[in-house]
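Progress against Task 2.4 (sequence-to-structure conversion) is shown through the following example record, which the project officer requested during the mid-term review.
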Amino acid sequence: MRSIHILIAACAVLASAAQADDHGRRMPTQVPKAYVQECASCHMAYPPGLLPAASWQRLMGGLNQHYGSDASLDAATVQQLSTWLQTHAGTYKRARAEEPPPEDRITRTRWFARKHEDIAPAVYKRAAIQSAAHCMACHAGAERGDFDDDKVRIPK
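Structure tokens generated for the chain above:
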């Protein structure tokens, strides 16, 4: 009987760890309005857990040259968003296990490459997709951090 209790406890711990690991990709429940207004005006407001803290720090420090665009914000907004991004940055297994990705791009992380290794580069050039960074094209729940493989729908 004792071994059954140990087995049940072990399963509960593993389930909790798996949920915590998945939570890193989820959008936090409290999102600053400025994050949605400013970031989602040009691209998806990515869940902060998709990148490690060092990447978010560099991105927020270089908004005047944000991937070819000037995304500058006032100092107070930069501080507010930087603090929030640092607080919610990737600390789960995937983010801890790797160095910040090249150019601090989510699409250049090792886990992204592994999860998308079967996707031909031509797929990202389809009109309905346009880029590997356009997560919502294939993941309907991407803005909430829902990247469930069973819910993926790749546009033709």
